[in-house]
Amino acid sequence: MRADLLALGLAATVSLVAAGPCDIYASGGTPCVAAHSTTRALFSAFSGSLYQVRRGSDNTTLNIGTLSAGGVANAASQDSFCTRTTCLITTIFDQTGRGNHLTQAPPGGAANVFDNLASATGAPVTLNGQKAYGVFISPGTGYRNNAATGTAKGDAPQGMYAVFDGTHFNSGCCFDYGNAETSSRDTGNGHMEAIYFGTESFWGSGSGSGPWIMADLENGLFSGANPKQNTADQTISDRFVTAIVKGEPNQWSIRGGNAASGALSTFYSGARPSVSGYNPMSKEGAIILGIGGDNSNSAQGTFYEGVMTTGYPSDATENSVQANIVAAKYATTSLTSGTTAFTVGSSISFRATTACCTTRFIAHTGAAVNTQVVSSSSATALKQQASWHVRTGLGNSACFSYESVDTPGSFIRHSAFALVVNANDGSKQFSEDATFCPEAGLNGQGSSIRSWSYPTRFFRHFNNELFVGSNGGPDTFDATASFNDDVSWVVSAGFA
Fold it and tell me: Are strands 436-440 and 360-365 parallel, antiparallel or unpaired?
């Protein structure tokens, strides 16, 4: 290892500012050509904008920068800007100066619609104790740049790393970050080289039940040279994961590790897959986040930071980058805010705050969830239907799930964005869709109840029915009129 590279890596363990990941890559001879993060600067001297948010109240945008050169994002500026409204991440800026910014992914071959934008508040974390926000990708959400410059094309060498949430994944196609087609269409084997993270196993898999770090090379997720399985590609589910894929002519690697501690492991390093089209490669140089090359957008995951390089980085360079990431001290923080009304085991009720409906409470009739007029003199059956036991979140213990008092074992969940009450089937999907994170009411009253798995969406009453609505979204129940009132609820003791 060169002395200057080692010095940069060691300095990175002391201070975020001493050397950023892209400084380390440059010292190793493989400079960054794209650098994206909503949490921190990836160059020691970077003090520009990391990302842009747009608020729902007036569609005004704000660029979020760093607290200092080479430092952590200024989350306080976002929090102030987004007070009592919703905010979406519209742009993730490229820190290299090349303009390789990520914006809303356009229609493609698999999903012929513009993808959704991510909530600006769906993935709060801390870095060295300072608050920041990641990019929480729900199914249907994605970012892209089909006109990137400097990225690898054809069989040219490149490196990539990303920091993900190792507990937020699914088996959908495809939660990727990296090099893809410039047309948003599948143009054949070898036209992509991106990092994949999740449990999709149709094309390939690693050992155990996943999730795995794999390479999306188009028409195949590869864990090694074998098209189907590389048992050396281990399941990796740390809360914060460093994922690496790099490739050059007839050589590529998968590496990964815990982004909060320890070193990288090499899960594969060797020849290209033994399938036609992958040697030589035909990379096109677009950049994607959260989706596949043809805009396949059924995956989920959380992204905090990532880069693409020119040239094939050495393991030593990547090891120093890993030391820098660990030194950033990613840690979890509260997913709930502004409310103390939720105690696991208690019975609660939710009263509407919209002027028309302040005598109405969230209740259910069978599986259907609605609002009904309820009072202390109501029938016992109705009072039970309007009361909910607070449980630890089935899909994330940092949030909550709400169990029906009159139908034990059944929970509020969303199905096609309508709220229903169903018996818990124990599936991962049910658990995630029945988990909700309360925050201060968007209209200044009570609490707003945000979906954990779709954090742009909140409990909303519309024509007395209940949905998880997004401010200004595509459905009728997403209408902006009275949105803040309709998603704010006074939470008090249950009727039963």
Answer: unpaired
